[in-house]
Amino acid sequence: MSARALAALEAEVVECRRCPRLVAWREQVARERRAAFAHEEYWGRPVPGFGDPAARVLIYGLAPAAHGGNRTGRVFTGDRSGDWLFAALHRAGFANQPTSARRDDGLELHGAWIAAAVRCAPPANRPTPAERDACLPWSVRELELLPGLRLILCLGAFAWDAALRLRAAAGAPAPRPKPRFGHGVLFDDGSGLPLLGCFHPSQQNTFTGRLTAEMLDAVLGRARELAA
Length: 228
Fold this sequence. Notes:
- By secondary structure, the protein is α/β, with parallel strands linked by helices.
- The chain has one domain (2-227): Uracil-DNA glycosylase-like domain (Uracil-DNA Glycosylase, subunit E, 3-Layer(aba) Sandwich).
- It contains eight helices and six strands; from the N terminus they run H-H-E-E-H-H-E-H-E-H-E-E-H-H.
- The chain has helices spanning 2-13, 20-32, 69-72, 80-91, 129-144, 157-169, 203-206, 213-227; strands at 50-51, 57-61, 112-116, 151-155, 186-187, 195-198.
- Strands 1-3-2-4-6-5 form a six-stranded mixed β-sheet, with helices on both faces.
- Strand 5 (186-187) and strand 6 (195-198) form a beta hairpin.
- Helix 4 crosses helix 8 (213-227) and helix 5 (129-144) crosses helix 6 (157-169).
- The two termini are 23 Å apart.
C-alpha cells in the first residue's frame, strides 16, 4: 500500500506548477541545455523523492541541480554531488550500486529515502523562502507515507532549516533555542524525528576538503546506527 501511495504522490509532485519563477527556470534550462547534454531530453519538471518505502533514514537535500536532477528526473543523479553521495551510500550499504546516472539505471536504495526540500531546480541554486514553504506540503505527505523513518540526515544548512520546519509541520514543537547546523551535529529532543547534520557533497565542499569521503562515510555509519 505504501509503495502505491508514494507512486500516487510522485504523480502529483511532477505536475506541480506552484512557483512561477521555478517553473520558468526549470523549463528554460530544459530547452537551452548544456552543450555536454545537448543530445539528451531534459526532465524539466519537479523531481520527486525516491528510495525504499520501508526507509528508516530520510536523506534531505536542498534542490535538484539544473543539469543534474532537472535533466535526469532523479534527485542527486547526473551531477558531481550525486557521484559522491551514491558512492558513499553504496559503501554504507544503503544502495545496491555506487553510481546514479539516470532513472532507469537499476539503482535501488535499502533503508533510505532521498528527497529535496525544494523539488524544482532554482536559479543560482537559491530557492526563496516562499518557494521553500510552497514545497513543504510535499515533504509532509511523504513523511506520512514513510512510517518507518527514524532519522532525517540533512545535507547542508538549508536542508537542516527545512527539516526543522518539516518537523513542526508534522506536529513537533518548535525547539527553543533553534538548534544550529553543523557536520555531525545531532538534534534529538524526543518530540519528533531526530536530525543529523552533514556537509552537502557539493564541489565547493568536496574539492576544498571541507567534506572528505571518510567524513561522509562516518556520518552515514552513524545514521545507520541511530536509525537501527
